[in-house]
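Dock zinc ion; give full complex structure.
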Amino acid sequence: DDHDHHDGKDDHELRVSKIRDGTVIDHVRGGQALNVLAILGIDGNEGEEVSIGMNVPSDRFARKDIVKVEGRELSQDEVDVLSLIAPDATINIVREYEVIEKHRVERPPAVDGVLTCPNPACISTGDEPVTSRFEVLEEGVRCSYCGTIVRDEIASLIET
Ligand code: CTP
Ligand code: ZN
């Protein structure tokens, strides 16, 4: 155990081992890992091979979460929603233990059909066939139909 360095990288690598093929979602805001799993629809019941580090030391932030999913790549829709709860996340695609692709998530100007408005009176939540639409703000999202702003509980709006 090396207590002399101030770079958390070695620490968390001891904690969450490398994967062979799949996706590493790194630099997730501390505490958001379970919401990342919710966005990816991972509940463990389909036998998904997933490793999670929560609140592990990081050189970029004080603490970060990290999610490693074996045998899976993410769709652009999934990455778009991830960007809302993990705006600084890095998506790493791993093949044969090597990172072959790395990119930062980008916050899209708006997301369609992925979040449900929490306002029961909103036209997008009624019987009408209206696809939800949220504009992405600096902090949070705003329903394009009723103007409701959600800042902290974005993950709870994810359509299932
Ligand atoms: N990783 C993994 N399995 C692999 C390769 C990499 O789980 N076979 C993880 C690493 O542990 C790291 C992330 O994927 O958390 C990115 O790997 P890498 O680019 O090698 O690390 P860094 O250079 O530290 O990445 P960054 O600069 O984005 O922080
Ligand atoms: Zn609304």
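Observed: Confidence is low (pLDDT under 50) at residues 1-8.
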